[in-house]
Amino acid sequence: MGSLKTCLQDLSPSIAKILEIAGAAGASIGIVHQNETVHLPNFGHRDITTRLAPDENTQHHVASLSKSFTAAVLGILVHDQKLGFDQPVFSILKTFTNPDPAVHDRATVLEFLSHCTGFATKQSYNYNNGGYNVATSLIEEVSGQSWGSFVTDSILKPLELDRTFVGVAVPEENYAHRYMPAPDETLTDVGRPTIANGTVKQGAD
User: Fold this and answer.
1) What percent of the chain is helix, strand and coil (3-state, nearest 5)?
2) Beta-lactamase-related domain spans which residues (predicted)?
């Protein structure tokens, strides 16, 4: 374990450099190995105005990492035989429409999750949010719950992620501000999240 922790600690300069290149104000990372939390490094600032640093309990907006929650709960529905990954979306979600007949009639759940809807060979992809908007509608149609409610009941509560939430709850004070880097490398605070159902995550979870 000692050598593992040393290797992880040695990655800190590289992580800090990546954050600098990306124009990120800060980050909190949690690494779990064999059910043990082995490394909780924090970088930069959670608030650049006050110069406050993040810690393992700082709450962060997860943005597109919410896609992994969407894929996971769809996997739960597949496991429960409520739908299939290879099932055409239109056969489940009758409100789904697309001007391309091939997509409208035959595009599958897995294709939307894989960003390859509309590509004939499925060897190409186009990263976008549209497919996951459809996936969210699928979850709500099949489960009878909102996306946020189903994620909470299926993932957050069973894993006891008590400080991870979905929705518009106001986070506690230890919260990482969201910044948008400008071309001149200045950072603008863009406020609390209004997308991805407000999903917020903390490193210690």
Assistant:
1) 40, 15, 45
2) 20-186
Sequence ranges of the domains in the chain: 2-60+173-189, 65-156
- Write the pLDDT tens digit of every residue in 5-38: 899 999 999 999 999 999 999 999 999 999 899 9
| Closest by Cα among 63, 77, 75, 47 to 141 | 77
DSSP readout, 21-37?
HHT--EEE--EEETTEE
Q: Read off the pTM.
A: 0.79
pLDDT band at 198 (very low <50, low <70, confident <90, very high): very low
**150 vs 111: CA distance, rounded Å:** 22
Q: How far apart are CA 151 and CA 180, in angstroms?
A: 27
CB atoms within 10 A of CB 121: 6
Residue pair 179/189 in contact (Cβ under 8 Å)? The answer is yes
